[in-house]
Amino acid sequence: MFSSTRRGALIVAAGMALTLAGCTAGGAGGAAQSDSLEFWAYEPNSLSQKEALDALVAEFEAENEIDVRVTYVPKDAFNTKLNSSIAVGRNPDVSYLDQPLTPRFAGDGILLDITDQLETGLGADAFAPAAMDTNVVDGRVYGVPLSMTTVALYYNTALVQTPPTTWDEWLESAEDVYVPNTTAAFEGIGGGGWGAWLFPAFVHSGGGTMISPADSSATFGDEAGVEAANFLLDLQRYSDQAVRQSENAFGNGLVAYKVSGPWEIEALSKSFPNLEFAVAPLPSRDGGTSVSNIGGENLVIFENSTKQDLAYALIEHLTDAEGMQVMAGVTGNFATNLEAAAALNFSADPNLAVFEAQLQTAIPRPTLTEWLKVNDEVIGSALDAIFVSGEDPTTVLTEANERANVILLGE
Amino acid sequence: MTQLIDPAVVAGQPATPPRRPRPAPRRGASPRRTSYRARQNRTGYLFILPFLLYFAMFLLLPMLMSFVLSFMEWDLRSAPTFVGLDNYANLLFDPIRYPEFWPSLGVTLQYILMSVPLGIAFALGISAMLNANVKGEGFFKTAYFIPNVTAVVAVAAMWIFMLDPQFGLINDVLGTNISFLGMPETALASLAAMAIWGALGYNILILLSAMKSIDESLYEAAKIDGANAVQRFFAITLPSIQPIIFFIIITATIGAFQAFDQMYLMTGGGPDGSTLTYLLSLYNHAFRYFEMGTASAMSYLLLLIILFVTWVGFRFIPQKLD
Predict the structure, then answer these.
(1) What does the alpha-carbon distance between residue B106 and residue B120 come to, in Å, rounded to a whole number?
(2) Mean pLDDT for chain B?
């Protein structure tokens, strides 16, 4: 016989047990064990992009007599949802994956090693080398590059007639266009993780590296990194904070130079029809090769997928020369498949042609599992200390380099 | 001591009749008849069962799980590993791996010191004015409450525009070109000002209703004694609403410890970490770096801090009617 309190507790416990049972049912394997092939993608920006991807997937379904369930997830929430699904074993078979996360996921042993399939299939040579490199960890391939993008130099043609090709020319031009409290030379590279993503382009332009290829230790605090920071500080002297930090400063014609990606072309043209602008390659320190950095997404297969062959077939369908032409429109980025890129002929648009050329020398982020944390917490904070709080670049970057090595190498 | 005499007999009333023994249950009847009180209890439990289930599933269970996780290293993708107190020790004592822990706590304390006292002072002042039978009291109450019912994103977009160094209303009025959200010296204060503005309506509503419940005769007596409005406010109003002020201080402080939305939307924790609050840092560890163990440890450290601050509040802030 139970007291009423004890009975109440039992009812609650039974309810919890039932709910828990409901939550965990089918947890092991989860989506990977369903009849259909599960595919997670970023929510496209427009209905037409979504329809294009749906049609491409429908083709694959018809060819392979399999049902593909596409789940569209907003980009901002994608990584959180994907990680949560992995935690409960209900992850998709195939998924988009942000470039810097590929090495982390591969390091955790949850991505399928597709080195052999790729060799016998499309082949790694079919893709842009820089984008392909973001999938390679310890010589093995864990994904196929889906899209890639880079940054270049936007300039206001009403303020600048000829874009600079070297750092010295850029500084001279900055001095010329600068009008205190009215016109800033450069918008800056921004702070935090975004600034830390852009900074490597300047380090590489100056002949430096972010990490040592030999032992993966951080090298951004070396001479080239300090020189890059000093150069950006020099540009900042011709760029009053109150002007460059105004909303849409470049669009409103208040800033002469801005570093950004191809997505700005349409936004600037639509929102600021009176703005006259063009795009040029990022200037290099001494007139050598213009170097930028690369971003984008990969397509990966999860190790626990029960349909690994079909999953790889879907990836090939989306990234072969034909599929990639559609996917470039879906993602709004550049095609990574070289044949598709040639067919799309981006160079017909003079501004897009600059980005396409810039991609040829773009350098990917280091494929180290802890790089994202180093990017945000170490390099981002260091750049803030230099560009916002005015601390000495040599001291700050040396300390940041040491901190990065503690995280990367445990030193 | 054992009671030998029935008190009813002493009081001249008839003694309590002895209880009749209960009749034996009839054959086939229920062995135990449910009392009215028990039936009532059962109905009550059924009514609160949905809430209890919700509480257990979505609050209690996650709280217990995150407590367990705070002793684990877990990135959601691989199996959690037990690390004992390492997460707590690293957060507290390893500034190389967790450089933002102490600064983010400092930023949060600064934010509390800026937003809570000033927020309450403004709310008190405006409530006192509205309590003086001003015309259009309802309109003002509604106007002050509008920020509470406006989406945070819309509020953030509006303030970004108002604080713009070139085209912003505030710079226009001041005749300056200050990048309020771009300088470490002004960014946090700007967000605190926005928080004060945002919470004003709620605080005013509570304080005003407390003020309206004060006995009018106290004011009349004070007036007869020659007390002016300021004296009446400090001698009657303020002491009479002390419990409400205490409530607002505690809830506003706890709310400020959990400041996240504006920082996430408007500054991302910058410039130079000047608006990186404790909760934003916790969010980064959980959902950007997927360090669930570290984030769980941070949330339990925050719980301890909030409990301590609340205890200090209970200990030192007057909370009873004077």
Answers:
(1) 21
(2) 87
